[in-house]
Amino acid sequence: MNNARNPLIAGNWQMYKGGLQGVELAGALVGIAREVPNVDLVIAPPFTVLAACAHEVEGSSIAIAAQNFYPKNEGAFTGEVSAPMLKDSGCTWVIVGHSERRQYFGETDATVAERVQAAIAAGLEPIVCVGETLAERESGQTLAVVNRQVSAFINLLTHHAVIAYEPVWAIGTGKTAGPNEAEEVHAAIRAQLDKHRSGLGTTTRILYGGSVKADNAAALLACPNVDGALVGGASLDANTFGAIARAAQTLA
Length: 252
Ligand code: PGA
Hints:
This protein has 11 helices and 8 strands. By secondary structure, the chain is of the alpha/beta class. It has one domain: Aldolase class I (TIM Barrel). The chain has an 8-stranded parallel beta barrel, surrounded by 5 helices. Strand 2, helix 2 and strand 3 form a beta-alpha-beta unit. Helix 1 packs parallel to helix 2, helix 1 packs parallel to helix 11 and helix 7 runs parallel beside helix 8. The N and C termini lie close together (8 Å). 2-phosphoglycolic acid binds next to strand 8.
């Protein structure tokens, strides 16, 4: 693995730990970060604790991500949060196009692309999520769906982009893509990136997400085209998230 593709383990806290518990979890991860010097650690708390978590992890190698934002800088958009606001809160990353956003909040390939553009313009690193539903997998459309989703934002990617492949049927279900299933899709995404722009595949990190746990992380992370993990449920506990980070450190 080259330096541009340092292993990255990101915790998506989803709609959990939006208060003091979140700050405590961030604090508990600071010690773990010291044990995994070759792994990039990112946590994505809810909006309400972004600034407090950023403060809590200051001086450590942990970076803060938001889970979403609205792609305008400011204005009369009640209830929304902009990319510059996330930067002001201490974020350096943002998750874009998570399947729950696509499924429940009407995000499309087009709105995902808008957010990728706005995130990069504001100086945030996007972690852009793609992945097929169970019906799409069962009808043999996995690679076509993922290819279409990546095509929507491929023009916007810089040379240190991060894409997360998260099969929708594996998120929060306890079902994981096996290492071979994950590797097949990751390799296809990397080939698509390289075909689009020479070298883009070599420098883009492709994370796997969907029921990554302490006991399956090592096998997934050992796949040559899996550069890290986007972890939901198992990121809500410092010990299990730490175990996944340590698995990445062992392979780094
Ligand atoms: P999970 O969630 O690890 O709980 O399946 C993944 C995600 O939300 O990105």
